[in-house]
Amino acid sequence: MKSNFTQQDENIDQEKLAKFLSNVEEVVSKQLKINISCNHLYPGSVKHRNANDKSIVCEHVLDEEGVRQEKDNINKEVTCISWSGSGASIAVGFGTNENISWSENKSFVCSWNLDRPKLNPHKCDHKLEVESSVQAVAFHPTLAQYIAVGLFSGVVLVWNIVKDDVIYGESPHEDPVTSLLWFEHQNSKYLRLVSGSTDGKLISWRIRKDKDSNLMKIDQTKKINSKNLPRRAGVKGQTAIGITCLDSPIHDSPLPSSGTAVVGCENGSVIKCSLEGMESNPVTFVYDNHVGPVYSIQWSKFHRNLFITCAMDQLCRIYHALQTNPLREIRIGGSVSNHIYSACWSTTRPCMAYVTSGNDIEVWDVTTPSLILATKLGKPPVTSMRMNPSRPSIATGCSNGVVQILKLGSCLVHADDVIKEETMALYDITKETINE
Q1: Which of 43, 278, 283, 434 has the smallest count of CB within 10 Å of its CB?
Q2: Distance (Å, whole) CA 131 – CA 180
């Protein structure tokens, strides 16, 4: 190693380096002095930022005119939201959550870049018209030109917003697509996408990178069947169990690679699945049921075995991946009609979770559990919510087709002085309950 450094030193032009440093010294020194003189403007900012600001403030209201002006007499709700990995762009799916029969009404996926200097909240940067209601969208975590879309018709497609090309799955699901999740493919030439549907199937798709193609190939299909669930799941016969949501743990990588996922189902089941191997049955572990459909499910980024769910029974639960019964259970108050469509972990505070209830957002400490904050967003119910993966903001979609980008106060974001304490508290609840 020493010889390498020596070789590098010999290759440096000492005269040019000295001249460069001499030229920039005055500018750099001046800026450093300005920085030092400005320190008094923010006395104790680090010390106090976690103790005061618990605000949730609306930063942008996105309302695509082209969607509102459609003349099909169908109210376009925000059905799903996805952030890009950088947190700069947001994809929004429009449709309806009230379909009780097959939908043939066209709908849209819209994308905004919030860093655009002249952001127009009423006109998106990219718009894709599709054949039926959009039920799921997912930005690729590292390749933001790819947006996966799942439709009520069962179709799965990938939209390349840079080329404005659409790649369709070679064969659709038999029922509406409800969830999409990008995985790391073992071959770097390909992308891997997993879709879940109310037909009970988990389909793994293979997409060739940077190659013109009109079809996504199916790598594998697995199906959740009632015969593979234990008796305590309360399901009889041999029928497919519809999938409503899907997530997988991520460790030290923006893409999951383990081949393990947890799914929420129409009948309230919460199931751990294996997406690997040739076995058609993906079920590996079954947790205690919710009562009614599970609306959302998400793994914690701070603990490899914890995930959060919410369901029609107005319960939000914290499960341990190795234990059937939930570790914590949060019952949301308010009207019975206030469905909890979304629950998600904070990306910076290990013990904090966000839950939607009607037109409210509630912030909870899951270890106690105790309510930290409740904020009303207006009259239209919140139908979708996603935490920005890289910035202190959260997006909510409403039944009137409007998306709100909400900026989170410093108390809800910064955890420099408490992150160790909160991480330990999260680990403590798992030990405490498992030991019992």
Answers
A1: 278
A2: 18
| pLDDT attached to residue 322 | 94
Strand partners, 203: 195, 221
| CA pseudo-torsion sign 173, 273, 194, 329 | positive
* Beta-carbon contacts of residue 391 (< 8 Å; ≥ 6 apart): 87
When pLDDT is averaged across residues 310-314 and rounded to a whole number, the result is: 93
The per-residue pLDDT for range 373-387, each reduced to its tens digit, is 999 887 788 989 999
Distances (CA, A) of 230 to 224, 235, 284, 286, 324: 12, 8, 11, 8, 12
Q: Please report where in the chains the tokens 């949301």 appear, as a residue.
A: 332
Find the length of the chain.
436
Asked whether residue 39 carries a pLDDT value surpassing 70, the answer given is no
The pTM assigned to this predicted structure is: 0.85
Question: For residue 320, what are its two tokens?
Answer: 């341990």
- Other Cβ atoms less than 10 A from the Cβ of 226: the count is 17
170 and 215 Cβ atoms separated by less than 8 Å: yes
Closest CA to 307 of 269, 258, 343: 343
Q: CA 74 to CA 20: how far, in whole Å?
A: 65
C-alpha span between 310 and 345 (Å, rounded)? 12
Residue 71, pLDDT score: 60
Provide the strand spans (E) within 275-331.
Answer: 283-287, 294-299, 306-311, 315-320, 328-331
Give me the pLDDT at residue 9, please. 55
Instruction: Please state, in angstroms and rounded to a whole number, the distance separating the CA atoms of residues 351 and 426.
Output: 6
Task: Centre a 10 Å sphere on the Cβ of residue 113 and count the other Cβ atoms it contains.
Answer: 17
CA distance 19 to 138: 51
Q: How many CB atoms lie within 10 A of CB 421?
A: 12
| Residue 223, number of CB atoms within 10 A of its CB | 18
Give the Cβ contact number of residue 41 at 10 Å: 7
Q: Which two tokens stand for residue 162?
A: 């840079």
**By C-alpha distance, which of 392, 303, 401, 327 is closest to 354?**
392
